[in-house]
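Note to self: the last two entries modelled the partners one at a time, which told us nothing about the interface. This time every component goes in together.
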Amino acid sequence: MDLSWMAWTTPTAIFFVVILCLMLSMWVWELISPGGQPRRGILRFETTRGDRLFVTLLGSAFINLAWLALVGPNLWWALAVCGLFGVLVFVFV
Amino acid sequence: MKSWNNKAWFLVLPMLLLVAFSAIIPLMTVVNYSVQDSFGNNEFYWVGLEWFKEVLESERFHNALMRNLLFSAIILLIEIPLGIAIALAMPRRGWGVSVCLVLMALPLLIPWNVVGTIWQVFARVDIGLLGYTLTQLGFDYNYTQDVVDAWITLIVMDVWHWTSLVVLLCYSGLVSIPQAYYQAARIDGASRWAVFRYIQLPKMRRVLVIAVLLRFMDSFMIYTEPFVVTGGGPGNATTFLSIDLVQMAIGQFDLGPAAAMSLIYFLIILLVSWVFYTVMTQQDADSAPGRGQS
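The predicted structure of the combined assembly is written out below.
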């Protein structure tokens, strides 16, 4: 099957594989340790694990965009901030 | 021990495939385009985040985004209260119900480009009923030359086209309220406002969530009507993000910047929709007993 029209590149393929792996790891996590019930964190609204992953990914997208606009195109530090943000979301939200 | 029924996967599989072909694969392609430059003939050159930086620093993007946010805010502020008011005024029984429902449904059945064409002609000062009448009444109205007139025309057109959707959703919420609630309110001597505030509005909350989300997303993605009526003008006064995006992608064939812009556009819609959804559904969770335990 010719997928050249999709203009794949290695970095974008890695990006999507990482997203897929995150979703698969959520599935494995749920199988190992079921915990899908909503809980209420510091933002005072109910979230499930899936919600927290969504908030992490959406927040990370905006952190990267803000970094790009305000700091520069080197996003490695932004990635570290995203990792920290994800941990905070999963622990406190 | 939780038991899993894996048969459910077969039921959602067709929808997953449909979403994959209609949304996920095109989205992946847009991501791929956003980090490359294209010169046609399927030749692509890696540029990294250059297009994202260019779009984020572009005044053209900022202005179109502000126009879009302003337009959506105005639309929500008008259509939601107006839709609720009309739904409250509609009859609940008798022949009037069918007449009102058909009248309300009519604007929704008209395609976007036809709505644009109707209003483009309707608002013309030389032959249009609205434009000509306003001019004869002494108003200096010309939506092709005046920014305020162009905005008013687009807003009135959108209100005419889409308030019906809010009305029908609210009406469905209102007719589902059991008569016992109204009887109890009558016994308690509740005022009309109290009935609305404590019975009708809470019962309409779910449909209002849908109405707000649909109207926000639709108004934020509006393209066809303003393109047909004003073409984005006068100047760039009604050039919303979608019009700007199409000009960039098809008019200028700048596929990379257009892909980067469309991803940022998508993320903004996703964020605002999520905030709306979370805030409005949270009120349901708060009122449900036994939920929200950590």
